[in-house]
Amino acid sequence: MTTIEQTDAPATQVDDAPPTDPTPSHGAGGDHGGHGSSATLTNGKLAMWLFLASDCLFFGAFISAYLLYRGRPQTGPTPTELFDIPFTSATSFILLMSSLGMVLALAAIQRGDHRRFRLWLLATAIFGATFIAGQIYEFTHFAREGLHLDTNLFGSTFFVLTGFHGAHVCLGILWLVSLWGMSMQGRLGTDKAESVEIAGLYWHFVDVVWIVIFTVIYLMPQPGT
Amino acid sequence: MTTVQDAVAAPPRAVGILRRPKANRGFVSWITTVDHKKIGILYVVTALVFFVLAGVEALLLRLQLFQPNGTVLTAGQYNQLFTMHGTTMVFLVGMPIAVGLGNYFLPLQIGARDVAFPRINMFGYWVVLFGGIFMYSSFFLGGAPDGGWFGYTPLTSAPLDSGFLPGRGPDFWTVGLILLGIGSTTSAINFIVTCINMRCPGMSLLRMPVFTWMMLVIAFLTLFAIPPVTVALIMVFFDRNFGTLFFDPAAGGDPLLYQHLFWIFGHPEVYILILPGMGIVSETLPVFSRKPLFGYAIVVFSGIAIGFLGWGVWAHHMFVTGLGPVAISAFGLATMLIAIPTGVKIFNWLGTVWGGSIRLTTSMLFSLGFIAMFTLGGLSGVMHSVVPADTQQTDTYFVVAHFHYVLFGGLIFAVFGGFYYWYPKVFGRMLDERLGKINFWTLFIGFNLTFAPMHLLGLWGMPRRTYRYDNDLGWETLNQLVTVGSFVIAFSVLVFVVNAVVSKSRGAIAGNDPWDGRTLEWTIPSPPPEYNFAEVPEVHSRDDFWHQKYTEDDEGRLVALPSGGSDDHADDGHDGHGIHLPSPSYYPLITALGLPILGYAAVFTNPWLGVLGGVVLLFGLFAWAIEPAD
Hints:
Distance between the termini of chain A: 52 Å
Radius of gyration of chain B: 25 Å
Oligomer: heterodimer
Structural class of chain B: mainly alpha
Number of strands of chain A: 0
CATH class of chain A: Mainly Alpha
Number of domains of chain A: 1
Number of strands of chain B: 2
CATH architecture of the largest domain in chain B: Up-down Bundle
């Protein structure tokens, strides 16, 4: 292995513009924009950053609700009785490691190494799926212990917050698997590395959000203990 | 370095599942278009249809209140109608009309050929349309939403079998608003990326027309305001349908959390509605006064300041909920601060008009009407920031009067001004000025007849959202005046619709630049060609087009430049061949179609519909992703 070369994919400024032939059909001044302003971020990446900024508030609102209701007197199973912190730490570690896989996948496609790209992409997706499996196990375990959506405030806030995070991870897995399928069909050339980068931004974001959720829900000392 | 080439070797086959549509006329072209101008027209027409629906709802409400103990509507019908009136006006009129005008004119004003994401743009339109149809279908599926446009918990979140708000209406409301939020978020992202990445050479941020600036500000507000309300709506939906306890006081839940989440969205939302209006008059007033906008930079920064401050005042909607003296004092003071940038803008508009050579066109009349009516609404707004006064006014008609002065007197007046100003650009023909004057004066009189008496009714204690009042309260005369006024408004809107329809075929030919405009949209033909600009313009100053047309002599008088502003340079014999434009596509429609199906699945908790919706959505997304470029 040698250096990782950053291949500058031709930046398509309109999402429909054919990325493969930027010049011939565009004609006189046919560039779709990007000039006149120092566009350091391509449209696609900027859009993803904006979406993620918006998504921060989505999780922020759920986390606020969780924090607001934390420690309120309630009946039914409590967090301290239910949490198995070593187990959840292990699945969290797997999710965080999947981000490393994502980084390696992106690096691989940027230098044109499609075999390794697909390998790392699939590894990332499998790590994500392992996390989801852990979450399903945890949910069913909690349910068997008597914690449901309608048991108490902890049940409501916990399941809905972590459930929506899990849904985000599932969406990410679907995205990664789709990219893998496109790559298998040869539709994902090195020039499309940016679409992998955008998926990667999303994936890393979902991981970072989990760090916050994990800390808030599992690691912060439970009030009254 | 191992150079593995296996994957890039085979060129991708063309795999359009549906052939990419080519038509640029007719029905198919309208449902598959990715042209920001057509999408803009679709948004505005859709918003106008919903405007008429919301108007009919309001007229029914007014008929009910025409006399004491009215019998036109039952209490249940009244609740449905005021809920749908408010929800429609905010989410299906105010927002789409701004997005529509922004869609059409934002790219033109910054010299771009399209928005950054044409297909996502069309997807956003479909989501808004389907979200609206979805919500309105509730009238035929067991009753419309009846929990108010704010949907306060625990009334709206009480479980379905509890007997409060029976029927599926509130679920249509929560799911419908989530759908509309998805549409708004996509268009917000699209506008921001377009503004940041696609300005023409020389179009620095501080040369952008104020309308475009305000669209950029509201795009940011939308981006950050939608998630909190989405979360609140999800919680309400779960509480009602899956037994969660978020807002159940008996289980320790806090209904006030809903109000916080809702108004953290709701107050920025107010500015999402009004800032485009401020942007429109900042375009029309300079043109019809033949003067540059007074204090351009401070107007822009005031708009941004309003956007920022809008995040710190949400609890002024909650002064009577018992937040405690410190919180309400802080929010009261923050609310008063809003008056500063707003006042700055009003004085800048007056400074723009002052000493100008004013042309009292219909558009100018509406813009001046905007300043007057919005100022009145702003003043009663400052009254609300005084907590003791607000405590007295909360939930009375005084509040109804206030927000109609800012939103109807503000946004709707400005939007009508914008219609008269931009219609010639969109359709190539002028709106009739004679009908326009009738339109303005009837709207102005009808508006004040409708909403001015509500101030008094409110101060006399008439509560909002009650479907009848006793006859010994002395409210009858003013209520009759209000109802008469509302029908005058309806007449005025009818005049506009007639004007718009007739002028499309019979109006005077507009030419490129009927108003002697200042911004880039007036440099190109009317209606603009599909590619907007034959050559990407290059601007050298603010109001660049004006400076191409005019210069000043030694005494500061305007002198027309001999060749300035000539129409020919827009065409240059260039027929637009060779300009690559994105092709139309079916997939935004198909993808968006999946969402209301998922919505019905959620409302009726029907897993099969859910599977169907998911399949449609995923099919649309995958086909979209692999759609060949041309």
